Structures are given as structure tokens and as C-alpha cells.
From TrEMBL:
Mg(2+) 2 binds at E68. This is Crossover junction endodeoxyribonuclease RuvC. Its cofactor is Mg(2+). Pfam families: RuvC (PF02075). PROSITE patterns: RUVC. The gene is ruvC.
Length: 177
């Protein structure tokens, strides 16, 4: 499975592509950051994020896109920009018919480090180890994007089984009603 991970942000949108399957060594295919100027108009910034994500989708042809689920933060301006960048990533994937998975920051941290309360340094260190890199990707947004992709690869099999079980339950329930 090839997954494009997106750590959404308007100033720095982390992007990482990981390939592999759960239980086997994973391979990083690319990592980077789409940057926009903080003083640029919001529309121009969103277009720049879209162009950057589209370039990554064209270059790496992922089967799936994993995006960090936006949650309420103390700074409303920050959460708005994050939500807007997240929506752009989901839109780019939807245009191509690619499935999108949303993962919370604590879910990603727990999957990669074993603790949902891990700090950025711990996430970066584990991403480096898991992908057999020479050094942690910089900035942290890039490492976070790779962590999202890793999280999805590892959790997708269990999520798929759960979805099939729920669908089977609903199909059986519908026949007996």
C-alpha cells in the first residue's frame, strides 16, 4: 500500500509518502513541506497548498491519502488555517477518487511511538528508526506527515476488518427485519 500522509498547515503543510504493509519493513518514497508566505492572501495560500499536494500526487501516485484530523486548539486562527489546508488535501484526493483516512494526533503518536502523549522529538526519532533514515526529517511537519502514513498502513487492516464486520451486521439485520 502506498500512502500520502498530509500534516495540514497553511504556513507549512507536511507531506510524506510511505509504501509497505503492516508487519513488514516500510519504505519512505518522499518527504517534504509545502510552504506559503504568512503575509499572502488566504486564497493564494490555499492555491499554493493545492498545487503542492497535486504535484506530490502526480509524482508518487498513492493509493490512499491520510490526513491529520483537525481538533480544537486554543488559537482559533491556527485551527482555521489547519482546517482549510486539511480540506484542500481531502479535495485533491477526492478529485482523483482516492480514499481519505483521518487520524487524530494522539492516534498517530500511539501508533508510531506507543504513547498518545509523545512529543515531536519522540515521533521524529521513531519515524527515523521505522523508515531506516539517517536523520529525522525536518521540519517536524514533514516527520508528522510520514507518521500519518505509517499509522494508516499499520491500522488499515484492522479498520477494514471492522468496516466489513459492521457492513455484514447491517446486511444481516436488514434481512431479518
Amino acid at each position: 500500500m502506498r500512502v500520502l500522509g498530509v500534516d495540514p498547515g497553511l504556513t507549512r503543510c507536511g507531506i510524506g509518502v510511505v509504501e509497505g504493509v503492516a508487519g513488514r519493513p516500510l519504505t519512505m518514497l518522499g518527504v517534504g513541506v509545502v510552504r506559503t508566505a504568512a503575509d499572502a492572501e488566504i486564497g493564494d495560500r490555499l492555491v499554493a497548498v493545492e498545487r503542492g499536494i497535486e504535484e506530490w500526487l502526480d509524482a508518487h501516485r498513492p493509493e490512499m491519502v491520510a490526513v491529520e484530523r483537525v481538533f480544537s486548539q486554543h488559537n482559533v486562527r491556527t485551527v482555521m488555517g489547519t482546517a482549510q489546508a486539511s480540506a484542500v488535501a481531502m479535495l485533491c484526493a477526492a478529485r482523483r477518487g482516492l480514499p481519505v483516512a483521518l487520524h487524530t494526533p494522539s492516534e498517530v503518536k500511539a501508533a508510531v511511538t506507543g504513547s498518545g502523549r509523545a512529543d515531536k522529538a519522540q515521533v521524529g526519532a521513531m519515524v527515523t528508526r521505522l523508515l531506516r533514515l539517517d536523520a529525522p526529517p525536518k521540519p517536524a511537519d514533514a516527520a508528522d506527515a510520514l507518521a500519518l502514513a505509517i499509522c494508516h498502513i499499520w491500522r488499515a487492516p484492522a479498520q477494514n476488518r471492522l468496516q466489513r464486520a459492521v457492513a455484514a451486521h447491517h446486511a444481516t439485520k436488514g434481512r431479518t427485519a
